[in-house]
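The records we work with from here on pair a chain with its fold. A complete example follows; check for yourself that the lines match position by position.
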Amino acid sequence: MESSLIIGLSSWVIQDGNYSDFKRGDHPAFALEFRAPSALSLVEGSGQAVSLAHLRDSTYRIVGKIVHVRDCEWWAIDVGVLMYQAGRPPPGAEEGSWIEGEAYVGVDHYAYMERFSRHHTAPGLIYDWTIEMIEIQTAPFIKVDERQRVRDPERLGWRQIDATDAWKDGIADYLLHCERLANPPRR
């Protein structure tokens, strides 16, 4: 099971009051959520092994088994560590199905903790972590059109910091380099 992960975090998750600022050496507890930029593919499960291979930032190549589907509200996978996604799994997917693809892995924005974990069939997804290092995205925002701004793709980069400061940092993206502690996940 994967124990060292680079986990994404947006400042709004802290600004919403879901968590306090994080600092290097902290031992927080949180679930992981994933988002796939394109649909994950269903794959044949026989002979597969769960895996989580780091690609860049907090993006991973995943192969996993679906361990929970709750109506059309959310689903959870095992990729060596358990994580969830709000919404529907790929068409035809059900508990026991295998999936693969590329996915962003981030700190639960509290949907699991506040809502999903309360259902009696929900698997435990909250792990204990040690934060080994924190980085902040340094690229400025550029205007795409009247309504949209994005990070300047020509200037993407990360700078190491000792702690998040979500209110001062404004619209910030962080990477938490974490070590998962050995105790089992809980709800």
